[in-house]
Structure formats: C-alpha cells, structure tokens
Amino acid sequence: MSDKLSVSFEFFPPRTEEGVLKLDKTIETLSIYRPRFFSVTFGAGGSTKTKTLETVLRIKSSNNNGVPHLSCISASKEDIRSLLNEYKTHDINHLIALRGDNPSGAIGNGDFKYANELISFIREETGDYFTIQAGAYPEYHPEAESTTDDLNNFKRKIEAGANSAITQFFFNADAYFRFIEECQKKSISVPIIPGIMPIYNIKQLSRFASNCGAEIPRWLRLKLESYDDDIQSLRDYGVDVISELCETLIQYGVPGIHFYTLNESKIVSRIINNISN
C-alpha cells in the first residue's frame, strides 16, 4: 500500500466458530496493506458488545490495531463507564463513537439520545485518553430534519471532542466534496475519512442504502440490475466502479479510506490493488 494513503477496515463480530476462522483469514489477508486499524461494530442496542471486545482483542493478538465501535442508544452512563474502564484495562485507546440503532422493536430508554452526548461523556470520564472518531453523513442522516440541522448535529459531535470522522458510504464523489465544503464553512476542520462500500450484490446494497440514507445513483442501480443472477460480472463491474471512486477521492487528497468489508477480503483487495498501481 502506498505510504501516501492510509486505509482502515470495518468488521462485524462473527457469530460462529466458522465465522471466527474466516475472519482470521480476512485479517491476515488485509494486514498486508498496513491498515491504520480494523474496527469492529457494536450491534443494535449494544447487542454484540461482548463479541465486539472479543473480536478487538483477537485483532490485537495478530499485531494489528483493533478499534471498537461504541454506541449509546439504550445504554446507561454506568454501562458506558464500565465499557470504557474495560477498554482501558486492555490498553484500547481508540473508539468509534456512534448513537447506534435500537434493537428491532425496542424503545430506547437509556441516558443518551445523541452521539454528541456520548462523546461528551467519554471526555468527561477519561479526558484525552481515547482517540474518538464520529460518524458523518455526506448525503445526510435519514432522520435529519434538514441539511442545516444535520450539519449542526455533526458539528456538535466535533465540539464535544471527536478527533475525526468516518463517513457513511456513498457512490457520488461530489456528495463527499460538497459535504467537506459545507463543513469548512462551519469551521469544522477535523479529518473526515470517506467510508467505502464494495459491491457484493444489489439486494444487499439496496437494503444497506435504505437503512442509512445513502443514494445509489440511477445509472449504477440500473447497471447492477442488468446482471440479473450473474454475480461474478456484477462484482467485477463493482470493483471497477469503486476503484474509480477511490481514485477520484485520492486525487482530491482525502486523509484516508475506510472500507466496509462485511468480513470479506477478496473484493476489497482487488480494489486496493487497482488504486495502488
């Protein structure tokens, strides 16, 4: 991997022994790109918090930097305080702090409503011990009342103490560029790392996009749908599309690229090899 570009990768905690072995292989494969870190998701309502820590420790045992996601929805201050102390016990000093989602059908009744409250609490409890990254939405959070409201919410996360941010995935580079410009107008100057989603299949991608408010451009959706059940051709095309997107972002001078891997390595590796040549 070029020294001019840093990469990082997101995983979810595997639920089976087979999944653990698969993730070990994925970590081994992606380690050759010298990532800044591997992050591990937290699960709705903290539903995977134990497995999140187990996975982070597994990553650390492979001589890589493991970074837990920490979401606050439905959590009490004592819940978060306990987790922070546990992370410190294991010399974990880097977090991705998010509001998170409620488990299906649940109603949030914790001490936190928004990610900026979580970030403020982490700073109050631990000072500057943790490097904190927040989430950002170039195409705006699906629950935002307006673009202005969404940007103000993002600024509150930074003012609360986030050191940098990772965006939700997007396919239109201009959306990222416009978002950066709007942030600069609001005097937000922290690094904002683009999050990139490789394309595995159209149904899965559509579901993810619907959940997080990301737009699949019409030209891309129609092209992907044209492959029908030819998954290999769809993925080959997806590699080309995402490689071009990454190259555009690199030319702009982004501070890094964060890949949502879905615990897979093959397609991500092809993309990184393309943009490294």
Structural class: alpha/beta
> What general outline do the C-alpha atoms trace?
globular
Number of helices: 10
Q: What is the strand arrangement across the widest sheet? A: 1-2-3-4-5-6-7-8
Question: Which bin fits the share of residues in helices?
Answer: 40-55%
Output the radius of gyration.
Answer: 18 Å
Question: How many angstroms does the end-to-end distance come to?
Answer: 9 Å
Order of helices and strands: EHEHEHEHEHEHEHHHEH
For the largest beta-sheet, the strand count, sense and barrel status come to:
8 strands, parallel, barrel
Percent of residues in β-strands: 5-15%
Stretches where pLDDT is under 50 for at least 5 consecutive residues are none
What number is the mean pLDDT? 92
Q: How many strands appear in the DSSP assignment?
A: 8
Describe the structure.
This protein is α/β, with parallel strands linked by helices and 277 residues long. Helix content is 47%, strand content 15%. The chain has helices spanning 17-30, 49-61, 77-89, 115-126, 147-160, 173-185, 202-212, 218-225, 231-252, 266-276, and strands at residues 7-11, 37-40, 66-71, 94-98, 131-136, 164-169, 192-196, 257-260. The protein has an 8-stranded parallel β-barrel, surrounded by 5 helices. The longest helix has 22 residues, at 231-252. It is globular and about 50 Å long.
Summarize the structure.
By secondary structure, this protein is α/β, with parallel strands linked by helices. The chain has helices at 17-30, 49-61, 77-89, 115-126, 147-160, 173-185, 202-212, 218-225, 231-252, 266-276, and strands at residues 7-11, 37-40, 66-71, 94-98, 131-136, 164-169, 192-196, 257-260. The protein has an eight-stranded parallel beta barrel, surrounded by five helices.
